[in-house]
Amino acid sequence: MASSHVRWSEAGRTLALDSGQRVYTSRVGQANTLDGGVWKPYVIDRVNGVVRFADSELRFTPAGVEHWRKGRQLSRFRADIEAFQAASWERPVLAVGALELIEEDDGGATAHVRCRYTLTAAEGGATIELLVGGSHKVHLTTTLEAKAAGRYRLAWDVDTPTRPVARQPRALPGGRPAPARPFSFDTPGSDLHLRWKPAEAADHGFLLGDDRLRVYIGEKDYAVRERKRVVPLTLGPTGIGNDADDGDETRDDLTWSSGGFYANGNLYLEDASSGNSTVQWLGLGWRAIDLNTASPGVASIDAGTQITCVNGGDNGTPTNITGTLAGVNAGGGTVWSTTNRPSQQAATAATTAITGSTGNQNFAVQTIVQEWVVTEATSYEGAAGEDMYFFMQEPSTGGSSWWSVTDDYDGAGGNVEATLTIQYTATSAGGISIPVVYHHRQRNF
User: Fold this and answer.
1) Fold (CATH) for 44-237
2) pTM for the whole thing?
3) For residues 185 and 285, what is the distance between their CA atoms, to the nearest angstrom?
4) C-beta of residue 27 within 8 angstroms of C-beta of residue 417
């Protein structure tokens, strides 16, 4: 079904369907930016070479790319091609290509701008791409190509205000195997955080300095004209989108973890081994829901209203593990904390059954959202809009070592945040409809 863009809001987007229905969609951690009083996923300042997104900026300068947040510089990073010659790594003379901006919109919850430039040397070249928009994150993708046979790599220097510190996942109790989680670094005293996926570990190396992190990407022996693409290295504020809205509650110590059990993204683990469920509850939250209607404005919440989560690994027969997803009663709003945990919440009358999964999850939440928006007539409009918080109740006991990991936010590896989609029929609707552009537009400085 074709859709048209209606408007961006603080943390989401409204689309109009040909059927006359509306769709509000938002990703975990989504944060648009204000431009002249209008919300947008990003803003480009072509004169000064600046791309603004969420509360952050990329500034493209001759000395490198500067990463700013809330008026404070988090880091400056730059790339160099390195070639192994004789017994040492050398950096050949580079020519840096013009910055190219490619605006991309697939008609989903957000849109992005791909900032691309090239590095060229006699030995080979590299294409650098920085993808931003609709969140605090920066995704770095690198493509290396050799002109001559040899051993090459890309050196990515990240200047930081303090010495970066590697952050490791928490160990699972009981000696059970844990899913591989992203490798990540924090910089104490700074908001900067960066990570990459376990599957990309072979393509990344690093050196730590007092005020610098050097990441080596794509090191290998290349044949003539051989190309290698490495995706992605993700940078952003500490936690990159994790906050008090999203995380999990453990049975072991009855605490709330906004960083997720493995400290690398929010997730829950269902386990039925001797009834010892490591993570008992999952909390999901979306703020500032704006359905773009005059209150009450919504006649019905329709089929297609769902939460889509990312699979983070599984073991045994996870599809035999069952549980219940509910909403927080009385308007749907709360702020998770150790003293305000999911297990302490009164649930909505409407719930939805869930199971473990070997793939991405789609949780139908039509009846829960209907209860909030239509039955309780809670306003979800503009600055007065409410938040929506969901939680997974304790899963049932299944077989030994059955578990399923479901991420509400995958901190590395592209745009794979959990998404809330609300399809509804409005009794009154504001805004104008603009056809969604599914191809990209290309601009250079």
Assistant:
1) Beta-galactosidase; Chain A, domain 5 (2.70.98)
2) 0.85
3) 25
4) yes
